[in-house]
Protein 1
Amino acid sequence: MSTADFDLLVIGSGPAGQKAAIQAAKAGRRVALVESDRRLGGACVYRGTIPTKTLRESALRILQLRRHQELFDCTLKPGQEMAALVSNLQTVTGAHHAFIQAQLQRNGVVCLHGRASFLASDRVQVEGLRGDRSVYRVTQVIIATGSRPRQADGVPVDHEHILDSDSVLSMLYLPESLVVLGGGIIASEYASVFASLGVKVTMIDRYPRPLGFMDGEIVGRFLRAFRAAGGEFIGPAQVEEVRWDGISRVLTRLADGREFAADKLLSAAGRVANVDGLNLAAARLELTPSGHIAVNAACQTTVPDIYAVGDVIGPPALASASMEQGRRASAHAL
């Protein structure tokens, strides 16, 4: 066990954590950033924003070609490899990791590789990959641990046939058909992108329309474009059962008796805060009924010297908003 001191310790290297750490470092504070993944950047870089936008760019290019079919043959071959559609993803994410690492080093942020957990509100333990543990005394902490896909009841995600938003891009081949459960941002984005790629997409939600928080006219335009691409939206509907038939199809049965069969199924039931293992009780922190960390306008928790930013505090859970929350929390802590 070793002991060190930092003015600010940031847990998580996603957009919120990066900006929080750099903001404090530029003010001359002693700052450490803890990341459990081998790469910096968080889910935004490797499972969220950048991968989905890479796939979206491929879909947009194909749509452009289809508008000029008399000049180009742009039909995707059956069993198109997913890797070909996101061929530059590894290059993009690798460059992003190198950029983040260089930026943190340039600003004097100490990067700690391991899993963080609270021993008290002012003491954080970091456990390394080999089980070595270090305890750090800290003046202030910013929690920026992000989120992970919510597991919907009755949907047995196996990451091969029944997927969540973290595993959907791990498919080897583009499916011919896809059922998407959910009507939020993630569900709508993937449903529209795959429909644009020529996949037969059926989107099922418990509400009468997707993206219920948005203006009705905008949602109507989204649905018209989605249907024009060959997609189908079904709602309101209650999913009764989801199962893999053991051969080639995922079967979805609704409460009204309707059944749907598809090559793959994506469960997009929202996301939950990544707080497992943080030992929040030792820091005198509790979660809200929705499973997030409650904060005030400055992203300060009920413990004055502990802040929380990004997906871990709930909506809007967007990279741009998370960056601003990280800066705001860090500035307030200063």
Protein 2
Amino acid sequence: MPQLLALEWDQFEARVVVAQQRGEDVRIEQAFSVPLDPRDPGQTFADSDVGKRLQAALAARRIGKVETLVAVGRSSIELRRLTLPPAPEEEWPELVRFQALPQFSNVGDDWPLDYFPLDVTPGEGASVLAATISPQLVKQITETCQAADLTPKRLVLRPCAAASLLIQRGGPLSHQVRLFIDMLADEADLTVLVQRDVVLTRTVRLPASDSEHDDTAERLKVLRGEIRRTIASAQNQLGGQRVGQVVLCGDGEQHREMAKELASQLELPVEHFDPFATLRCSSELSASLPQRPERFAPLLGMMMHKTSPPRHAIDFLNPRKTAP
């Protein structure tokens, strides 16, 4: 069976998920993190030491060359909502790039640019969410992977990948508009979905949770303020529609208590979502899940989306292009 590997890293750790794929069936074999600290704050995103540590960790687990998917955070890219004039869908890639050039702060002809549709009204044009990333950053990410003897096939926007896992869970929706929250070491992805479509995503800074003085109360205070800002922004963008539910990724005791606090303070229903709950995992992994399962949601989302018919919402290595 072919192997798949999903990967992302920050200044604290690299996170890896390995799976076996047989047709449409995926079994998660391993999910682990590789510590990257202590690191000099001045080091770049593509610190070559990341690749070396990854290579050593993969070799220790006897993981060879595999198809590799990489997640990149919202803070590393530029994102804009664009309005397109009425045109056939096959012409949208050129229209998006034409509109992006004057509206994005930094974008050139050689910058990867991808998008996904938000609202489409026949005869009246469409709204899309477009994203771009610098070629230099793509090169740095690729070089880091190559240092670990990996070749990335996908470079996916992290909040969209995490939201994809929630979307794939399926089932009836109790609320039309939801806010999905995925908390990492020192930031959180806040993503608004209307039914099963991403319409808005923000990444916010949080007090680091891996420090010796982990202050959950302070993290909750900062998160609560950012949630309110996100809800207000979404309501403005959606013409008055309001977030009806918050979904907090993670199913530990800390997340359950945090969900209760947020529900009380925001006066909204808050559900906690275990990213591993509905997935088929190896017996070894099921017996010893990662300590911070919520941090693996984007990787699991990429892994499971790999077998689904729709393409990834944003993939900088395979952006939408006009057919020749």
Protein 3
Amino acid sequence: MSIKDAVKLIEESEARFVDLRFTDTKGKQHHFTIPARIVLDDPEEWFENGQAFDGSSIGGWKGIQASDMQLRPDPATAFIDPFFDDVTVVLTCDVIDPANGQGYDRDPRSIARRAEAYLKSSGIGDTAFFGPEPEFFVFDGVEFETDMHKTRYEITSESGAWASGLHLDGQNTGHRAGVKGGYAPVAPVDAGQDLRSAMVNILEEIGIEVEVHHAEVGTGSQMEIGTRFSTLVERADWTQRMKYVIWNVASAYGKTATFMPKPFTDYAGSAMHTHMSLFEGDINAFHDPDAEFSLSRTGQQFIAGILTHANEISAVTNQWTNSYKRILFGSEAPTAATWGVSNRSAMVRVPTYRLGKAESRRVEVRSPDSACNPYLALAVLL
């Protein structure tokens, strides 16, 4: 989508506002909203200069003595926000340092752009494709507090295995998954079908192609929505957009969604299994029909790089203390820096699905979790 196309979307939708979004180091999204007329007055000039903001108010970024920063909107990311009352076109932005006119060196999206550029300069390939699978929980309610005299939390979920003994409006249907029995049951055990379908409908409306949705292993309504792979920056954009949609649809249903890796001590946690492949033109650099498992030497070396730098990578792909509560023996989460074929307990897995198909040869890193910053996580994996 060009500047002309983005302007056309604003005009034809009769948008009242344009929402500018960017992501901080921790992966949290921020936004500024401006009247659409400001864009339409001089689109070329506005897309070049964007919107000024205070970088010192973003944790870990600029100091107050050098706080001026600039948002440069990417017209290719334009979509109509599905939740606001007034028609609003959303644009994802790169953060620019006015001192040099370049992407800010702590802006995750600018870092992801540099990672893509580095791949092309390496000669190994010109395109990296990513297919992250962020899992999440949807709860009926969450309470938590930490005061000087007490600390507590409580999660409410009628789908949780612990809810079988609750008195719910005078009855309890008893239809719910056991502790590790939540993977892909049909209704009424799967109580999230309509909720996920509502999420999928909106994702497809805003340009994210969905391939599958289902209930996941964890009791208490753990879910997954599988979406199509794409290039690094675009796929990270989509992941941020997915989280936004999932949070807001859950809220509209009177529920709360979380990408926290390990909400429960003894139940399954939420991962972001990430599929990757490198292409040079139309050639998959990971595919060799004569090699074992059809995995080329480049693919093997890619795995070796992931395992060699597993500690450093984990600092980015598993960035929270809670991330390491998920990685336990006896679960599907990997506990060692090793690789395997069709082995879901390994850090790196080579899927056997469509083994002989050149376009399908890929590797899957299973250690990342859904609470990471997708721009930084995909960039460090590459």
